[in-house]
């Protein structure tokens, strides 16, 4: 009997393409994070930049997800990566002839976020079909390791060179990476069907949305877990503005020290992911493991800025180690639990929920950073996260745990 392998042609192809996209994204996102604060000196301006990138995620998923559930996903993925490459190229040329302008950066961020949302939705809808059956947790975990591994390598490098090479050159680099990803993805061979009623009307679109809402009503575990996860992730994005401001304004800190904290976080994620691939968590322990990690992660975030720098690195390493394990256990179970015919729509609801929460929390945290010490802001929201973990995840543990157990019923 032939041994089953995760590394089929399709899975290998999508992983290579994803790695190329991550390579450029790490360099570009790091530079953009510090550029805005360096130019404006305002945590609120940085928070607005983060928040505006989330607006397309509130609108686009609900409009587009019924289409992705009706049509093949691969052509969308290839097209949007190709469009990304062209847009990055044009943006790089524009920056060569224009000085920094905050308003222009806001509009550009909005446009790129819209394309990124479409590209990400196409990827999320297609990717589960490229993982061999029975290897979902390993497949999702290995995919999630790409960005941390690349970030561990690239972030310290970019922290040193980004001011020297300039943002325009980083955009050209991202354009090349996106083009290569587009060409590689075109080689994916997957059978995708077009469902009946392909000429999607407004009435059909609304019916598809209502089907997804009815499904969520019958699955409280999905709702409550999503509620907590999106609050926790939203505060995490807001914390980024505080950490960037803290390292930029506090004696003894610099963008380089922030970069090494990020590298420690990503190194922890890499180690945690590798261990998860090597030894899968028993099904009956998955809920309790993720709950304990949520509590510990929220506490680590809360105390981060009170620690001396060496312990900050340890803090981030532990957070990364735990976070990747809980995230991938949850994601693999939920993706396997959700019917393929509803995957794009349910992912869309999750995305909209996340981005609304993310936008609001990022703006509130950024605004409070203008009037309160950065440590105080994080302490307030970290304490709320711990409380919500108890009130939401633990209180609704029965319905949430059922999802982790359900994934094994048909095996």
Topology:
Layout: H1 9-40, H2 43-52, H3 55-68, H4 74-97, H5 102-126, H6 136-165, H7 167-185, H8 202-217, H9 220-249, H10 255-278, H11 286-303, H12 309-337, H13 343-368, H14 374-394, H15 397-406
Helix pairs in contact: 1-2, 1-6, 1-7, 1-9, 2-9, 2-13, 3-5, 3-13, 4-5, 4-7, 5-13, 6-10, 6-12, 9-13, 9-14, 9-15, 10-12, 11-12, 11-14
Write out key terms for the chains shown.
411 residues, mainly alpha, Growth Hormone, Chain: A
Describe the structure.
This protein is an all-alpha fold and 411 residues long. It has a single domain, classed as Up-down Bundle (Growth Hormone, Chain: A), CATH 1.20.1250. Helices cover 80% and strands 0% of the residues. The protein has 15 helices and no strands. It has helices at residues 9-40, 43-52, 55-68, 74-97, 102-126, 136-165, 167-185, 202-217, 220-249, 255-278, 286-303, 309-337, 343-368, 374-394, 397-406.
CATH superfamily: MFS general substrate transporter like domains
Main sheet record: none
The count of β-strands is 0
- Name given to the CATH architecture: Up-down Bundle
Order of helices and strands: HHHHHHHHHHHHHHH
CATH topology label: Growth Hormone, Chain: A
How helix-rich are the residues, as a percent range? over 70%
Count of individual domains: 1
Oligomer classification: single chain
Helix count equals: 15
How would you state the average pLDDT, rounded? 81
Low confidence ranges: none
């Amino acid at each position: 009997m032939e041994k089953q392998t995760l590394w089929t042609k399709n899975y290998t192809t999508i992983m290579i393409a994803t790695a190329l996209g991550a390579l450029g994204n790490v360099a570009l996102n790091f530079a953009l994070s510090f550029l805005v604060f360096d130019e404006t000196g305002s945590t609120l301006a940085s928070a607005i930049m983060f928040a505006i990138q989330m607006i397309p995620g509130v609108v686009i998923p609900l409009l587009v997800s019924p289409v992705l559930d009706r049509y093949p996903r691969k052509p969308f993925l290839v097209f949007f990566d190709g469009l990304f490459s062209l847009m990055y190229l044009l943006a790089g040329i524009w920056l060569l002839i224009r000085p920094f302008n905050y308003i222009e950066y806001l509009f550009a961020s909005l446009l790129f976020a819209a394309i990124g949302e479409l590209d990400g939705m196409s990827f999320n809808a297609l990717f589960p079909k490229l993982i061999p059956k029975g290897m979902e947790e390993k497949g999702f975990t290995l995919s999630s390791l790409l960005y941390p591994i690349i970030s561990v390598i690239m972030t310290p490098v970019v922290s040193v060179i980004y001011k020297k090479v300039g943002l325009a050159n980083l955009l050209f680099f991202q354009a090349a990476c996106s083009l290569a990803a587009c060409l590689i993805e075109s080689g994916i061979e997957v059978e995708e069907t077009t469902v009946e009623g392909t000429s999607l009307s407004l009435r059909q679109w609304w019916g598809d949305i209502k089907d997804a809402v009815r499904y969520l009503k019958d699955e409280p575990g999905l709702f409550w877990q999503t509620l907590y996860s999106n609050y926790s992730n939203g505060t995490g994005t807001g914390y980024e503005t505080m950490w960037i401001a803290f390292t930029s304004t506090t004696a003894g800190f610099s963008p380089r020290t922030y970069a090494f904290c990020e590298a420690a976080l990503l190194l922890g994620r890499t180690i945690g992911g590798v261990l998860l691939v090597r030894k899968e968590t028993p099904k009956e322990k998955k809920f309790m493991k993720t709950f304990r990690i949520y509590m510990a992660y929220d506490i680590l975030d809360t105390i981060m800025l009170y620690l001396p720098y060496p312990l900050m690195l340890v803090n981030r390493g532990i957070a990364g180690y735990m976070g990747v394990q809980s995230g991938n256990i949850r994601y693999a179970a939920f993706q396997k639990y959700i019917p393929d015919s509803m995957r794009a729509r349910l992912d869309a609801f999750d995305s909209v929920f996340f981005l609304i929460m993310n936008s609001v929390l990022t703006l509130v945290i950024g605004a409070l950073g203008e009037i309160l010490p950065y440590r105080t802001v994080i302490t307030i929201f970290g304490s709320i996260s711990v409380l919500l973990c108890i009130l939401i995840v633990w209180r609704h543990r029965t319905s949430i745990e059922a999802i982790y157990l359900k994934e094994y019923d048909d095996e």
